[in-house]
Specification:
mainly alpha, 72% helix, 15 helices
Length: 273
């Protein structure tokens, strides 16, 4: 093996260790008894007091199933709508010519520069006036905009050769058919990338669901985890660590299953060989 490859491998392994270290502590804590944890709380590997009772106790004391369902409903609906809106916005910005296209694009991208905390109070007032506080729609509606998705899909669509559209138009296809039958299939890696980022962003969103609902039965997994305190759960630390591990499982599975689409999508390469 070449020296450069060895150095690169060492660097990758080092970064992997740094990345996985924060996960080891809650994983270790979730597998240890309460007494073993307080005896040595900084242990990263559960060498003593190993038990699986924390998972059983967490499921009995904390409504993780309900929080999981809420997070899935919110994230699924948000992801579907955002992908549709972003693709329909990115397609004309990338493949069509119209007056003010550059201005529209920069206005959309400007949305990335606005901190969500600035919009928090106006959004809450708006949702409250609609009577959507403590409802699924109250949590979902403000998450329907994603300037980043438009930015990513536009750049991805620009990588698709225009000759494909020209050939389709010669065959008599209209703009809608070209978009659906030609451009859309070639955009799958970019779309999947947007799906992943949108789903993860919605799943991990804490601030807005925390503001939009005070009903524990409508809590998402992030709000539910934040609501666990030492007041209502005696062995707070082990329960919290266990719930955190359980709450992150869907994200790990989703990423490992479709990670190749993320790489191809971020590289901005079309589906052409």
């Amino acid at each position: 093996m070449k020296r450069n490859n060895i150095i690169l491998m060492i660097l990758i392994i080092s970064i992997g260790i740094i990345w996985i270290t924060p996960i080891l502590w809650p994983l270790s804590t979730s597998l240890r008894s309460v007494s073993a944890f307080y005896k040595n709380p900084n242990l990263f590997l559960p060498l003593d007091g190993v038990t699986g009772s924390n998972y059983k106790e967490t499921m009995s004391k904390v409504p993780l199933g309900r929080w999981y369902l809420n997070s899935f409903i919110v994230s699924f609906v948000v992801t579907i709508v955002v992908v549709i809106i972003d693709f329909l916005a990115a397609y004309p910005l990338a493949r069509m010519k119209f007056f003010g296209k550059r201005t529209v694009y920069f206005l959309i991208i400007a949305g990335l520069m606005i901190p969500f905390s600035i919009l928090l109070v106006p959004l809450y007032e708006f949702i409250n006036r609609l009577g959507l506080v403590n409802t699924y729609w109250g949590i979902i509606l403000p998450q329907f905009t994603s300037p980043f998705g438009v930015f990513l899909l536009r750049n991805y669509l620009l990588s698709i050769p225009k000759e494909l559209e020209e050939s389709a138009r010669i065959d008599g296809a209209g703009s809608f058919r070209i978009m659906l039958n030609v451009i859309f299939p070639l955009s799958i890696p970019g779309i999947v990338t947007v799906i992943i980022f949108t789903f993860l962003g919605s799943w991990n969103n804490l601030l807005w669901p925390l503001v939009a609902t005070q009903n524990p039965m409508l809590y998402t997994i992030t709000v539910g985890l934040a609501s666990i305190t030492s007041v209502n759960v005696p062995n707070y630390v082990t329960i919290m660590a266990t719930a955190s591990i359980i709450g992150g499982i869907p994200l790990y599975l989703i990423f490992f299953v479709i990670q190749k689409y993320v790489i191809s999508g971020l590289s901005l390469k079309s589906g052409l060989k």
